[in-house]
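Tutorial sheet, problem 5. The two components below are modelled jointly, 609 residues in total.
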Amino acid sequence: MMREPGLYDYSPAVDRPKITWPNGARVAFWVAPNIEYYEYDPPISPGRKPWPKPNPDVVPYSHRDYGNRAGFFRMMEAMAKYGVRGSVSLNVAICQHHPEIIKVCNELDWEFFSHGIYNTRYTYGMPEEMERAMMDDVIKTILDATGQNVDGWLAPALSYTTNTFELLAEYGIKYTCDLFHDDQPQPVNTKSGKLISVPYSLEMNDTVVLTMLGKSSRHYTDILKANFDQLYEEGADNGQVMCIPLHPFLIGQPHRIGNFAEVLEYITGHDKVWVTTGREIAAHYYEHHYDNVVAALAAKRGA
Amino acid sequence: MTLTDDYLKYPKRGHGMDHDRYTWSQLHERPAVTWPNGARIALWVVTQLQWFPMDMKPAVPVPAGMVRPYPDYWDYTLRDYGNRIGVYRIFKVLDKLGIRSSVAMNSALAEMYPYLVEQVNQRNWELIANGLDMGHPHHGDMDEGEETALIKGVLESLRGLSGQKVRGWLSPIRSESMNTPDLVAANGIDYLCDWANDDMPYAFETTSGTIHNMPHAMELDDQQILIALRHTEQEYVGQLKDQFDCLYAETERSGGRIMAINLNPWITGQAYRIKALEEALSYITGHDGVWSATGSEILDAFKAQA
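Model answer (structure tokens):
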């Protein structure tokens, strides 16, 4: 086993090239709803038990189903009201199970990126050929259903093999959401191709805050604003990225959606915010910053 | 260990759900429902009266079960506090505000404390079956014959003790086997409370015909908020108010909605929490167009329009 990921160089926050965003924005702000399908009777993976209880585990299954039946629509409306397009972290089986949701997102000019096939199918233990077959399926399914190429990747249920990042670069995926080491995009070291990480801000993820840490919706509102305020301040010197990763089954609950809308109103009410998508952040970074940053890192390595 | 090729086979990957229990449908696309007297919100309070046996050995983990070594007087007596003290604080608040409740009850508790069943009947409230006791959660590895006998026994007991028809079923910890919906429907149950995927009732298919699932809001359960997530009482009140405000506003374009509140007397019936509950319930009943009703009354009003 590796002792460290080996995917990036050490790059201290206080000594790195300046990143700029369009129109002098200090923060590139994006929202990434995870639109997911968890299976009622999934197979057992050696890496992870899909549900705590023997199948069927009705509470967690139906709780997640709430997101597609009720939560998505509330979340979508709140985002549309404040002009925020989603970058959808998609379990692509949603294209078959719930194409009605895909259609709405596509009409709103939302981006789709990969979150695997189902959130109950893990990458753990996949031989390389199997992981390739899964990636082929994802890319084809999203293209067929939406006309979009897959530019971004968040591994299904954040499950990996040690081949994952090499394969992403080889498949021409432009950015990964799976690395949490930075508030700016960063080059990812792969043997072939080009890949960057775009901050997906796991600390701002509704599942992490509301479920794993067990905080209230009003507390979540407060920390989202505090996180934004700090990045907005730091962004005056060097452009930052803030992402809010969401799950409609959590944020789309009646007792949460109003508080979340208040956050969107607050953030989009600032002047120097670029309200954008993961794909657009990656494209801007490749066009304006990637070469500079790679050269600066190489110079440090040589020094 | 590596995976075999079967792991990339997805036999249920098609339109709709990956099972046949209910059809895929988004809440906002459904026809508007109206409640009696033009009410906007049907307020469905479910009080849960449960017994946690001291020698329980549940087949799947039960939150708030006996978590310490036998003999666990700590957990046993604290749960029992709810059935002796807490429940009467809650009933007093409900009576004061003119709120009706469905009472979900373990049949073993009804047999131990029939006084509680009388309290429900005196108020003309509804009894919902909540399984045998909290040591017997239904689960995926459960033997079908064993589950059949369990469900029959629970319903016979509750129906005998209460004289009520007992139309609703809430599984202990909402846990089901693949057969639970079929078995309860075969025993005359009209609605399930286990599934947490909707804000309204919806049709649920079983081998004994169509029943319904009622939106017994799991996220607003006091055990979920105050025990599992460890929120403060004021945060709990805030969530109940936020939930109500959203649903109440939605009724302007969607038709009637249901505000479901689940109460565990050993939690919300504590002396230091009861005023928080009263604050939230007073806020709700202080609005025009709130109809307090039992699960069966709400379901019947819903089905009359379906």
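Marking note: Chain B has one domain: 33-303. Full credit if you identified this.
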